UniProtKB/TrEMBL annotation:
Residues 1-134 form the HTH marR-type domain. This is MarR family transcriptional regulator. It comes from Thermosipho affectus. Keywords: DNA-binding, Transcription, Transcription regulation. PANTHER family: TRANSCRIPTIONAL REGULATOR, MARR (PTHR42756), TRANSCRIPTIONAL REPRESSOR OF EMRAB OPERON (PTHR42756:SF1). It comes from the Bacteria.
Amino acid sequence: MSKNVENLLREICFRIKIKGREVLKDFPITPAQFDLMQKLYFTGEKTMTDLSKMLGIAKSTTTGLVSRLEAEGFAERKRKNDDKRVIAVDLTEKGKAVIDKVILKRIEFVEKVIEDFDDKSKKQLIVLLVKLNESMKDYG
């Protein structure tokens, strides 16, 4: 049972991710850069060290990703007010707009997929997904 649930969730997440990334064809952004942008979008500005840890990549790799995003105007580095030695990275409005487009594409895809579900099935799906998500929070 658990193996089937994991498999289904992995396949669903993969399909939604691929559909959303179709938007990236219009932008000079690699999947690794997009992952970094998503982290910033959902968690706010981060230091290079924090980004490296969150993404599980070397700090030098993170620096390269941020440099390319900054050159394209999707991200910016800024000094922290409380400690001028610390550099934080955040998305620019241009970067946020890309993520917004990806999220919209994902939502449209999910809407299309479930449009033939009756209202009861849609509500049951939401209830079960909320329950699953809440249960996962208990396990980290």
